[in-house]
UniProtKB/TrEMBL annotation:
Record's subcellular location: Membrane
PANTHER family (UniProt xref): TRANSPORTER (PTHR42948:SF1)
Regions that span the bilayer: 7-27, 39-61, 82-107, 127-146, 158-180, 200-225, 237-262, 282-306, 327-346, 366-385, 406-424, 444-464
Protein name: Sodium-dependent transporter
Amino acid sequence: MEQWSSRLSFVFAAIGAAVGLGNIWRFPAIVGQNGGGAYLVPYLIAAFAFAVPLMILEISVGRSLKADVVTACRQVREEFEIVGWLVGASVLAVLSYYLVITGWVLAFFSFSLTGAETSFDSFTGTYQPIGFFVVSTLIVGAIVSLGVKEGIERMATVLVPMTFVVLLAMAGLVATFSGFTDGLRFFFTPDVSRLSDPMIWSAAFGQVFFSFSVGMGVMLTYGSYLDAESNVARSALTIAVADLAVAFLAGIVIFGIVFSFGQEPAAGVELAFSTLPAAFEIMPFGSIVAVCFFGLLFFAAITPSVSMLEVGVAAVMRTTDWSRRRASIVTTGIILLAGLPSAVSYSAVELSVLGRPFLDVLDTTVGALGLPLGAIALIVVFTWYQDPATLHEQLGDSIVLPLVKYVVPVVLVTVTVLRYVPGVPVGGWRRLPDLAGASLGQQLAVLTIVAVAVSLAVIAAHRVQTDRGRARDREVT
């Protein structure tokens, strides 16, 4: 059984899994769109009351059962193995298009090194995105094939510290720009009136869920390589603080650049490949900053990609008795095939489904719907059906269990529903469900979520009734 060489190595690897592109190119924009500093209040609450408890559960289950997500579910009950496979399949599906985006980042990193000038539209109008997707996938596959210590651990102990070094260096440079204080004011000044808007809370909990890589089997898999002496709660808090630090530093850097050079705050692809490159062209040392920024983005894309691939590789290894090398080759090959449609959709071919790029369709279905539902299923398996003595051994008498067992599933269902349903103003509470005005796809998504929620409620009620019956039987005997 492979193990981390130290608790610090595990923490670095887990930070790498949590810190992704969303910390850098999505978090700052969401802050700007949701009341500036006011958004940070629900975000911090979501991080420590929602993400950290779920992270503690995953790590504890992995460490206790010494199993991947598929094997762990099967150890609870044979019939729950399918839950593990569905979660693993969802994670690999997300990875298939995440590596396409990683390829874009790698391309622009190489362009910044060589001084080549190109726009995102020009780049995606060629076949280059396919090639960079293949290269990124092979890099990730090679790292995972080397194993926990030689591959994942070595990568994390280099790239995670480098991420902080690059961010701090960029923050130091941006602090000399004329618009730095305006950026800080925009980032941290709260619009307190926005705290009554439920969509700010929904956005915060949704961002935290995807930012911390919880509920995906990643932390469970990494936890299975952790020794019994490590303090899981302390590790989870360290990971959370590091993830938040990257997001805050990225916000300081990005808003400092945007406000100094007259750009509009944006998110995602537009921010990384249009807004900031335009600023790099006119700022002092712009070419150096561009190299640092795209290098930073590449680090932030590679480390979570490795963790997602490890979820699949670990499951394949333990269910087939294959070697790590063989499991890595096969799983990487599957990712290459699965990711090609997404890569092709942002290339000269422009593969689309119902008028939308295939990658976007996959993101709004598997990414936005499949992952939260998978997380809810894992919570039910490990908190409702796992042996109570084992669960107590994993979590003790802390507040973690009631939070994860009762609160987190409700939050996940609510956030996912609000993500799909268009809204109407009702008493100042925006975007309440309005199925009559929703598209067929949105109606189906909401009905799916409601059906799953009702099913989980029935399962939970049945579990409670079963436990009460067993307790009465023990009293009789």
